Amino acid sequence: MSSGPTAAAADTELVVVFAALADETRWSILVALGEGDASASALAERLPVSRQAIAKHLAVLQAAGLVEPVRVGREVRFRALGSTLSDAARRLDAIGAEWDRRLAAIKRIAEAME
Amino acid sequence: MSMTVNNPSTIDADAFAVRRTVTIAASADKVWAAVTRPELITQWFGNVAQFDRLEVGAEGEFGFEGYGRFPIRIEEVDAPHAIAYRWGNENATPTDLDEHSTVFRFTLEPIDMPDGGAATRLTVVESGFDNLSDPVKAMESNRGGWDSELDELVAFVEGSA
Q1: What does the alpha-carbon distance between residue B118 and residue B108 come to, in Å, rounded to a whole number?
Q2: Which of A88, A108, B2, B92 is a Cys-bridge partner for B100, taking CB atoms 3.0 to 4.6 Å apart?
Q3: Does A60 contact B at CB distance below 8 Å?
Q4: A109: buried, middle or exposed (CB in 10 Å: 19+, 13-18, 0-12)?
Q5: Model-level pTM greater than 0.80?
């Protein structure tokens, strides 16, 4: 998209990802999973949040495509999915690139003004 | 492996904002005109720009060839220092603009050129991509950018793969 509206680029998926990330606890969970896969119980031991609350937050993260469950024996562990985060970061980069182009145009307009 | 809870696990209100700055060899008044006059806005942004007046609360539309028109609302006017536009995404209507929109805010800062000429540092911040935090408040808390924290998290998560 060369000159399309950035807000349109902020489509549902991006909103879902950022809404999922815009929470201290979920951010902490994702950072913790960045160190390695973990079950909800293991996360509850490491974070100052109940196991039930962890499970709810994991559901939000899973819906946003930021984590996936992995069955290990009788345990369900969660794994952070870097690709969703990278996609979101790339979209923000693309929106930033559009602003670079717009600012360059504003610069030309203002500098040409009498 | 254990971790401390206080690790890089905090996120501030403008974690998901895009910030860009450019230096323009023109006075702040000229730059102000370029970012607030509809006939100039269409030279850098879409092909339709209309709002009835340059005041907080003024409503209008920005349009893009091939994408349609999107409702906008002016959220801040402080000539010639700052202007903020809220603009809707493809789902927005004028009545639910708050839920389906981002805000972009320009700030203009006069600077001195070595040759004594007038110049302006123009910064734009587009925020509200999470649609939860108050973008204007987020922009006022002018800290960092999304990139350090999100990049940190990306590195963290990818390092685990």
Answers
A1: 12
A2: B92
A3: no
A4: buried
A5: no
Please list, in sequence order, all residues whose beta carbon lies within 8 angstroms of the beta carbon of residue B109, skipping any fewer than 6 positions away: B28, B81, B120, B121, B122, B123
Summarize pLDDT for B15-65 with one digit per residue, the tens: 678 889 999 999 999 999 999 999 999 989 888 999 989 999 999 999 887
The answer to whether the CB of B3 falls within 8 A of the CB of A46 is yes
Token reading at B43: 């030279």
Q: Is the pLDDT of residue B9 over 90?
A: no
Contact residues, B window 68-127, toward A, CB-based 8 Å cutoff: 70, 87-90, 92, 101-102, 104, 120, 122, 124, 126
- Residue B155: its pLDDT value, please? 58
State the amino acid at position A39 in one-letter form.
S
CB atoms within 10 A of CB B97: 18
Among the CATH numbers 3.90.1580.10, 3.40.50.300, 3.30.530.20, 2.60.40.290, which is that of B18-153?
Answer: 3.30.530.20
Q: A6-112: what fold?
A: Arc Repressor Mutant, subunit A (1.10.10)
- Does ipTM come in above 0.90? no
| Token pair listed for B52 | 């009835």
* Domain regions of chain B by residue span: 18-153
- Region B63-70: mean pLDDT is 83
Q: Which residues of B touch A21 (CB under 8 A)?
A: 11, 15-16, 130, 150, 153
Digit-coded pLDDT (tens) for A3-48? 445 444 445 677 788 888 888 899 899 989 988 999 999 999 999 9
Q: Tell me which residues of chain B, numbers 12 to 41, contact chain A at a CB-CB cutoff of 8 Å.
A: 15-16, 18-22, 24-26, 30-31, 33-35, 40
pLDDT confidence bin for B2, thresholds 50/70/90? very low
Beta bridge partners of B21: B123
